[in-house]
Write a structure and sequence with these properties.
Length: 264
Amino acid sequence: MSRQDRQTAIVRDTLIGATRNAFSKRGELRYHVIRDAWTLTKRFGSRGIENLELRELPAVHDAVIEGYIDDPNRAVLAALCRALPAKAFFEIGTNRGRTAWTVARNNPDCHVYTLDLPAQESLGEIKLDLNQSDRDFFVQDWDRGDAYEGTPEEARITTLLGDSATFDFSPYHGQIDVVFIDGAHTHAYVENDTRQALQMLRPGGIIAWDDYPAIPGVYGYLNEVAETMAHPMYHILDTRLVICTGADLIKRLSAADQGRQYSA
């Protein structure tokens, strides 16, 4: 069988299998194929945010990072902190504390600040609106910070409590090298948290946002604000992260070089 015949057979068999599975695996079709296709379309259709391959971040691409296997985004954040290098990292949205721990673990000279609501009951007292997925998330088991509790890294992690819409960020203005925004995901909260991040950031620092491009509030606001930022905003491919930085960390590849990778 010739190469062309083999390729034709692959296309034929894939289309037949996809048609069959569209009926037998409707859940997977809806929650993975269609959702992922829409996410890819939004990413490709962004007008203000450029897509960036990991290898266009040379100091990050080959970094060796210790951390949890469930979410590679944490490793990228830890590597970005190392590349600066960062002395202070501020996270909005602690959750279990795995990001805070990963950054601290891999950056022994960095102090981590992480902000979250003090308790589940605080959900009824927040200032701005939440979407339903955020509300559902907050009613799960309350295990904030358990990933770093009792670890050696805990001494370099400061747990802060409060609603980011009313929290006093002024002590951190101009003091933070990397700000990571992963709190509530509505347009209002992402806008608020970005405004606070810009005030906290040191010159040459990095702002990173999670959950792009899948979540509408994140996607919509970041595409709006991209036109006003002092530096370009980049979505790191194969992650949920968007970054904006004045640091000299990015080495863009030509279209031909990118194409060679995709065909490899």
